Amino acid sequence: MNRFVIGMDGLAVKRLTANDCAFKDPKSKSHQIGFNLPHKSFKKMFHDLISDDSTQVVVQNFVVKWFDSDGQEIVELLQAVKFYHSKRELRMVDLNNAILKEMFDVGSLLLFMRDGIDISVTIFHAGSENNLAEIHGADLIAKIPNRKSS
To answer: Coil, strand or helix: which one is 121?
Structure first.
């Protein structure tokens, strides 16, 4: 077993979809620049936000450090993760950052690591699943929705 494997609760991967990247289009009418965090991958990481009560939206702010695949820090931002009770949906919002917008491409993989209110996100190019599986285990990659459903 790889000595760099981190517990599954502390890691999650998101594959960016065309819908996730729609806000890059100058003609976009998106009122909220952000993307869905699929339950299958993120429910353990954000278990403290997921609620069964009648609260419409649960919001938590996080200090998020964004890194490129070489480990170089791109930017540090204060961003919110929201849980919409009515949709049973987690979303990361407040992504209106010019540098990040340029790095987000359909198919890119985002590796999330959470420690309290601190989150590190590393952006990998599309097709990096095998590299991530070698480092963090195939179970992590198996939780990524397939391209048609993500």
So the answer is: strand
